Amino acid sequence: MIVLRNISKIFKHGTDPITAVDDVNLSIEQGQIYGIIGYSGAGKSTLIRLLNGLEKPTSGTVTVNGQDISAARGETLRQARLKISMVFQHFNLLWSRTVSENIAFSMQIAGTPKAKINARVAELIDLVGLRGRENAYPSQLSGGQKQRVGIARALANNPDVLLCDEATSALDPQTTDQILDLLLDINRKFKLTIVLITHEMHVVRKICDRVAVMENGKVVEEGEVLNVFTHP
Ligand code: ADP
Ligand code: ADP
Question: What ipTM was estimated for this complex?
Fold first, then answer.
């Protein structure tokens, strides 16, 4: 479970501070697919960086499964972050490495034994539907295939939470739906908590259980998707 309590993030620009996130309170249950939607500049990316400990809040606390990520530092933070994975809009794959090598990379960093890495890579290749493409380079893949690699890589260390930052925004509508189906499948299979930020209503409607609407750093609406998007 993820709990954000009175989270604010203020960036200081000389005399002109910017409040990117403004007193946000949210609870995300284990196993939920949780959407954070808002226009550009609403504070979504900052919020997701606070969730994975890349940014420290100016005030407030972020706890993930009881651990205070906002206070963690050094090795404690590094260990915690292994369990909070990211999927990116522009995939962030290593260009000079194959599909298998990209997926294996974070396990190598984590010091996983080679035999275990190979078995896990094979399992993940099957899970995301890339069998036959193991030795391809990212430049040889379609956008949807690149994102499948991004998702496999994110799952490598058995995370508790998957954070998706505009994960389908660079994809065409049909590929978007295929990637959303994959995320849904992973959520159901592993009861994995997924938090996704997006500016697309369609993405939230298709797979999210709950949604928070952000505007100017604040959560202006929050609830079950059907309730939030159905207005009289
Ligand atoms: P979104 O992801 O919804 O587009 P962001 O979180 O990127 O929103 O940005 C929210 C606000 O915070 C914007 O006004 C943005 O310019 C500002 N901001 C984000 N990151 C920084 C930063 N590192 N330094 C200064 N201002 C930032
Ligand atoms: P190495 O095997 O030497 O660690 P990398 O695979 O990290 O090399 O990167 C090889 C080259 O590709 C570098 O010049 C790097 O800047 C570039 N590169 C790797 N990943 C990306 C990416 N996601 N976007 C743009 N350039 C990248």
Answer: 0.70
